[in-house]
Amino acid sequence: MTTISTTTSLLPVIKKFVEKAELRILQEDEESVAMLFGAENESDPLKHHILRIRHRVKQADLTVVCVWIHRVEADLRLCMSEYLSRCNYGLRHGNFRMDPTDGEVLFSVGADVTEATVEACVMLLAYYVLIANQTWGKYLPGMEKIISSGWDASTALLSVDDD
Predict the structure, then answer these.
(1) Tens of pLDDT along 7-34?
(2) What DSSP line would sit under 11-61, residue for residue?
(3) Other CB atoms closer than 10 Å to residue 23's CB: what's the count?
(4) C-beta separation of 50 from 35 below 8 A
(5) Do the Cβ atoms of 157 and 49 come closer than 8 Å?
(6) How far apart are CA 16 and CA 141, in angstroms?
(7) Which tens digits make up the pLDDT trace of 52-104?
(8) What are the two backbone dihedrals, phi and then psi, of residue 139, each rounded to the nearest 5 degrees?
(9) How large is the average pLDDT for residues 40-57?
């Protein structure tokens, strides 16, 4: 069994995982692969996000990140920040965050994979992709309501927790 070290790249394993899942790669570099998620026939950009799977070799970490294509306008960032902070309170894995300068919202989940086997990394990768997409899917409607309808953070969170 091959174990992961600070010199082993998981990028070939990640690409194989993406191919098996029949996902389309938008962009790739030396440490990550990105795919667009959202309904194929959905024209509303609020419904789309980019899923980036990253493995930094020197740090030996594996991270799955969902990035919202939409940027939060400056006047809504405080409300969105409160909403994301409240969402994080109940999460077991991962966290939401927003860049206060440009309004980029993302959710990330990851782990140190030093000394893990490649097989364990593939299982972890599948688990993290599932967590990222399910968590994103659960809390996206609240983000949309803040953007499109001006809801406050408490009301937006109550609307997703009722589901």
Answers:
(1) 778 888 888 888 888 777 888 888 888 8
(2) HHHHHHHHHHTTPPEEEE-SSEEEEEES-TT---GGG-EEEEEEEETTTTE
(3) 16
(4) yes
(5) no
(6) 31
(7) 888 888 877 889 999 988 899 999 999 999 999 999 998 999 999 999 999 99
(8) -95, -10
(9) 72
Question: Nearest CA to 63 among 72, 52, 77, 78?
Answer: 52
CB 138 within 8 A of CB 162: no
Q: Are 123 and 131 in contact (CB under 8 A)?
A: no
Number of C-beta neighbours around residue 53 at 10 A: 28
Q: pTM for this structure? A: 0.85
- The dihedral sign for the CA sequence 125, 19, 67, 149: negative
- Average pLDDT over every residue of 150-157: 95
* Residue 94, token pair as written in the block: 């991962």
